[in-house]
Amino acid sequence: xxxxxxxxxxxxxxxxxxxxxxxxxxxxxxxxxxxxxxxxxxxxxxxxxxxxxxxxxxxxxxxxxxxxxxxxxxxxxxxxxxxxxxxxxxxxxxxxxxxxxxxxxxxxxxxxxxxxxxxxxxxxxxxxxxxxxxxxxxxxxxxxxxxxxxxxxxxxxxxxxxxxxxxxxxxxxxxxxxxxxxxxxxxxxxxxxxxxxxxxxxxxxxxxxxxxxxxxxxxxxxxxxxxxxxxxxxxxxxxxxxxxxxxxxxxxxxxxxxx
Length: 259
Prior knowledge:
By secondary structure, the protein is α/β, with parallel strands linked by helices. It has one domain (3-254): TIM Barrel. The chain is built from nine helices and eight strands. It has helices at residues 19-28, 41-53, 73-84, 106-123, 135-142, 161-169, 188-194, 224-235, 239-254; strands at 3-5, 31-36, 58-60, 92-98, 127-132, 152-155, 174-177, 200-202. The strands form two sheets. It has a five-stranded parallel sheet with strand order 4-5-6-7-8. A three-stranded parallel sheet has the order 1-2-3. Helix 3 packs parallel to helix 4 and helix 8 (224-235) packs across helix 9 (239-254). The radius of gyration is 17 Å and the shape is globular. The relative contact order is 0.16.
């Protein structure tokens, strides 16, 4: 049994005191792969350094997080474009639109998202989409790409059943299920029951969104098992089945060099 954590930011300073120990602990607990999306130009160096150190297990993505889209976003996108030419990345991300705290850069976020979709198609790489208070805006953009073989994941999915079905059925994308599924009254249980495991991957979003029983504390990749256990409980299937299917999905989506 092996797991792939399809979304973690282990290069952030939350892990400065015990980063290597935390990663080795995850590897020992059957987390054989960890995918790390970039945030902005400030995180490229730390992320790649960590990926080089654990090159058999940690795989980088290159993108611009929507919260980092400000007046200088065009310069940030130039950095992304240059990095992708190196051929070392397994996907585009983390991209998308976030309107939770601030709508003042909505148009810039839209343009940055479209730019990264185009990069995804150009390089034939999956895209990881961050959607917070923005499903309508993101769907409007994705409607223009329905026939262009876009591949990827809706990270930290928290939408409703209709939105989940649209993501899977119309756009052909996967749902990233994280620690929120373990939260009481999250609303995700009914959706997990309806959606086939074949359309899901699992993720921690470390250091954020730690699952129960660690809710409110620092998240880490070894906690992926609590997410998998919750999905197994909801769907009344074995933990092995959750691990096998979601790991297979992750390997296929991102082209990971894992057995």
